[in-house]
Amino acid sequence: MRSLRIKQVVALVVLLSIVGLSQAFVSTSLASDEVRSVDLPSPLCDSLRASAESQLAFHAYAIGVQVYRWNGTAWVFVEPRATLYADATYHGKVGIHYVGPTWESNSGGKVVATRVVGCTPDPTAIAWLRLQTVSNEGPGIFDSVTEIQRVNTVGGTAPVAPGTAVGAITEVPYTAEYFFYRPPE
Predict the structure, then answer these.
(1) Which of 118, 113, 117, 121 is nearest to 97 (CA)?
(2) Cβ contacts of 92 within 8 Å, gap of 6 or more
(3) Global pTM?
(4) Helix %, strand %, coil % of the chain (to 5)
């Protein structure tokens, strides 16, 4: 009985150590992202630069799908659906991204934005974007966010082949990085 109790305590200590290390990793990732600037292909994507009076608040990696519907003559964009992660290996889920466009954190905070400008450095991938916040709500990482960049996209473009029937839906996988900016504190 005593041996079982000791094993349980050891297992709990190991688990707490792992949780502590993962939290430290996420904190370290965020700290290093605060000083990282977004690499933009110049001059093609210079218009995507965040305003000089803003500071990086958060950086997330997304993996998901771009949803399209066939209207009989073309594929029409419907919505994005993606999961947001704290690191480039898609560990540490921090939120989701969906129609609006909306980004929602695990803590329930949300930011909704609208497209300002885009550029397409890779014709096989969806455009890189700069977006302006329309609304924020709730606490957490999206509080006070005013601008968002979507960069380093892979995939997600509408299919080249026509749909098989009007109303047909297709989901095209994509990845991207999102940079969220707020006014300086």
Answers:
(1) 113
(2) 22, 25, 26, 29, 85, 86
(3) 0.80
(4) 20, 45, 35
3-state secondary structure of 74: coil
Over the range 108-139, which residues count as b (16 or more CB within 10 Å of their CB) and which as e? ebbbbbeeeeebeeeeebbbbbbbebeebeee
Q: Which two tokens stand for residue 155?
A: 């995939």
Span 94-134, pLDDT tens digits: 999 999 999 999 998 999 999 999 999 999 999 999 999 99
Distance separating the N- and C-terminal Cα atoms of the chain = 55
| Per-domain residue ranges of the chain | 1-35, 46-182
Longest dimension (CA), the chain: 72
pLDDT in tens, 40-86: 888 889 999 999 889 999 999 999 999 999 999 999 999 999 999 99
C-alpha torsion 16→17→22→24, nearest 10: 110
Q: What is the CA radius of gyration of the chain?
A: 20
The Cα–Cα gap between 71 and 162 comes to: 10
